[in-house]
Amino acid sequence: MPQIPHAQITTTQISVINESTVLTDADLNPVVAALQQQVTNDFRPIWGTDAELTMIPSGTQPPSGTWWLVILDDSDQAGALGYHDLTRDGLPIGKVFAASDLKAGMSWSVTASHELLEMLADPNINLTVFVQSANTAGTLYAYEVCDACEDDGYGYKINNVLVSDFVYPTWFESFRTQGTQFDRMNQIQNPLQLLANGYIGVFNVTDGSGWQQQTAEKHLTNLRHRGHVGSRRERRSVPRQQWLASLPQRKITTNAQQYRQHLQAILRREEAA
Q1: How many CB atoms sit inside 10 A of residue 238's CB?
Q2: What is the pLDDT of residues 43-57, one digit of tens each?
Q3: What pLDDT was estimated at residue 224?
């Protein structure tokens, strides 16, 4: 596939913020380095967008004007800390629920890769591809670049850090034939194909049912029942005027301390029971 010249590419500044109770900054550092390599070496030449990732030390304010990739425990914490949909500057946020991944036996580094690449490809969560089936019928496909091949088993390693596979723009082009490369690891054989455990958001423009999630098994599930609160899937089903701006960093830090104290209190009660 033709690559986009570097001179035509703008670089987005992204602050990586750790508010997880299960991961230390030291745990994040090698993952951030691997994500930087993935974006610069693998993603940028294909998608034409680049990013510079900066690990923000705990308790430090992220620079103004940066996008955020925030490492959280779970979606409950996303609500508790105020990490909803936009930074204080009205810019995109990607959220990684590390504790939820670890509990499910999944790789949080794959999730971090997934969220980062999808934020770069569609930061406003509003891009779609329209596949028309008749004069007055057709389906919108969400412009999500990792959902179709999101399972950990399809990922690849950079310096021993597992990252997510991702689709190429050709995946969204229904005229493409077999022999075309549709994803980074060349595991997809056809346009709009979903690998096992993969999914994609679809919107039937004629039946008025709203956004639904189509799985590799061809099942449809309403997105409101599947996406974590604050996740891209959940946000796509929510009108933009209902999105919430994140709290100031000082308030987030205070809430983070209270959240950790709350978790410790629960653990003490469980131990005493």
Answers
A1: 17
A2: 999 999 999 999 998
A3: 43
